[in-house]
TrEMBL record:
InterPro entries, per the entry: Adenylate-forming_Reductase (IPR051414), AMP-bd_C_sf (IPR045851), AMP-dep_Lig_C (IPR028154), AMP-dep_synth/lig_dom (IPR000873), ANL_N_sf (IPR042099), PA_CoA_ligase (IPR011880)
Enzyme class: ligase
Pathway: Aromatic compound metabolism; phenylacetate degradation
GO molecular function, one term: ligase activity
Keyword set, alphabetical order: Ligase, Nucleotide-binding
Organism annotation: Chryseobacterium oryctis
Protein name in UniProt: Phenylacetate-coenzyme A ligase
Family to which this protein belongs: Belongs to the phenylacetyl-CoA ligase family.
Amino acid sequence: MDFSVEYLELTQLRQLQSERLVNLVGYLADRSDFYKNKFNELGISTQEIRSIEDISKLPITYKQDLRNNYPFGLFTVPKNELQRIHCSSGTTGRPTVVGYTKEDVDLFSEVVARSLNAAGAKPGMQLHNAYGYGIFTGGLGLHYGAEKLGMSVLPISGGMTTRQVDLILDFKPEVICCSPSYALTIADEFGKRGISADEISLKYAVLGSEPWTEIIRQHIEERLGVHATNIYGLSEIIGPGVSMEDFEEKGGSYIWEDHFYPEILDPETKQPVPFGEEGVLVITTLTKKAMPLLRYWTNDITSLYYDENAKRTMVKMKPILGRADDMLIVRGVNVYPSQIEDAFSHVKGVVPNYYLTPIEKEQMCVALDVDVEIEDGFLKAQHLELNSPEYTTFIENFGHGVEAEIKRRVGITTKVKIHGQDTLPKCEGGKINRILKKK
Ligand code: DLL
């Protein structure tokens, strides 16, 4: 495969994006009733769009627009030109439908192949693909991308963790992909069997579909003996492979911006924020055919940056803080679950399997209960007799330590309950929801 576009000079990249945007706007004006109406409403003539700089003149597209046009209203090709249909996982309501032409499926495979390459995977390696196969884009997306790169794929899908571990032991894949919370579940199963990281064939883990932070990376890397990297994407844009971390750089992900042009907008004013500031990620699909989207409001919070030591020229994004609608307001303080998760990384002995329960009074969130696990090995090293008064005091103090760290870093008071490792419900494949029903 040719990866040279990832290293394109910035001026050439802008030129390419400009050409693609101009073509796209013409394409939509010809083929999309939805965008034709939007252009008319806003009084936009397609001639006004001459370069990528003009993008902010274009309308923003929201998930609600997809819902209002359910199922195929935003498609710009006849049904007989489609090759595939997927849906979003419907975590926030009715699923939204997306269509792909053959060219779109090729593009999808191309960006996933690029992503796997950035994750450390090479042709000839074997992928243990534990993303769900089905209407979710994870399974098939990684599958086609891996084949395009020249890998072999075990299409195991999510769930049945004992079988997953049996097959990893028997088939010895170098690469695994799944959600980060499911990678922890798999690591737990290896731990239960007394198998250490150096006995596991895996070298690279390609993890995404939900927010995750450094503490999860550290656990997965140590327990599975892998480089764990972050893959981001959403079905409305294409699926996984919108952005990807490099396994030697980590810390943030390259956006494959020759196809997906990113902007960061203020959640309230919907105007661009200064470069580097946090806001909602908005993406324009520059090259898709069956369902191109202009300035799609992902609802995911992040910021863009350039990394001085980056290998590639494309812009990077920070890990997603959370979806705007996952934000909790605890006594007036805005909190994302990932910020609590990040606070855990500052307390030795925490296992990042956790749940948050908002406590409400008069429809306001006044407190947050946190349930989290403590590492077995860490607890054993204290040499405390199980359930002795010293043991109880140690666990209580440990919980207070976590509360203090959350207070210091996030600014909210929480009640933390500590559980033994492997005792809270865990991810059984797919995305995990860390926020439990309000009390
Ligand atoms: O989750 C696509 C995907 C599959 C991405 C496999 C990565 C790996 P949807 O089901 O449409 O698509 O959900 C998209 O999931 O808007 C984010 O809120 C969240 N998300 C996806 N990847 C990440 C990530 C797939 N790496 C929604 N970090 C997105 C944080 C993520 N959140």
